[in-house]
Design brief:
By secondary structure, this protein is an alpha/beta fold. The protein folds into 2 domains: 30 residues; 150 residues, 60s Ribosomal Protein L30, Chain: A (2-Layer Sandwich), CATH 3.30.1330. Helix content is 40%, strand content 19%. Strands 1-2-5-3-4 form a 5-stranded mixed β-sheet. The longest helix is centred in the first third of the chain and has 25 residues. About 23% of the residues have low confidence.
């Protein structure tokens, strides 16, 4: 009986180890600087709409019992194989930067995504470059770099899993997740 229990425990631990290695292999290499290391890992997504107005909104009203939310007012999309910001993306990021400057108690996670075409390496590389392009633009617009952390998910979390041109276009995006900073 003990031998069976020990074997089951060992099998479970082996499975967890293998899953951890698989997740590690698919994660993006992120060259976050030391200032970014104070940020916690991205929380579970909670989709709510944030209106980017010029008036500060009380944090309690924004979050309620939530710890984070997705900036879903405008999505940042990209052309195939590109990480160049489109004019509408720059306009949306300008509004997001203004909102972020009015709400300095929030961190930002910038997730780069790609469509399903290409090698795993290329999908993660382009997703990472998209996230970095958004970060650089937000910094140029006056958002403190230490508040911004990038990551990429390649094609792991598609907006639309179909293999159509429209679905590919929807999946070439950056998602911005807002997270309240923890108190010191």
């Amino acid at each position: 009986m003990r031998g069976i229990m020990r074997r089951n425990i060992m099998n479970s631990l082996s499975l967890l180890t293998v899953l951890s290695l698989v997740l590690f292999c698919f994660s993006c290499a992120n060259t976050a600087n030391k200032e970014q290391s104070a940020l916690t890992e991205p929380p579970a997504r909670t989709k709510i709409v944030v209106r980017t107005t010029a008036v500060p909104v009380p944090e309690e009203e924004l979050l309620g019992n939530l710890g984070s939310f997705v900036f879903e007012y405008e999505t940042i999309h990209f052309e195939f194989g590109s990480y160049e910001l489109l004019p509408e993306a720059k306009s949306a990021l300008k509004r997001k930067a203004e909102w972020l400057k009015l709400h300095p108690r929030f961190n930002v996670y910038i997730e780069g995504h790609s469509d399903s075409r290409g090698s795993e390496r290329s999908k993660f590389a382009i997703g990472d470059k998209r996230a970095e392009a958004v970060k650089a633009h937000l910094v140029d617009l006056g958002v403190d770099a230490w508040r911004l952390r990038t990551t990429c998910l390649g094609d792991l979390w598609p907006e639309d899993s179909r293999r159509t041109e429209r679905a590919h276009a929807l999946n070439r995006r950056v998602v911005i997740i807002i997270n309240k900073m923890s108190s010191p």
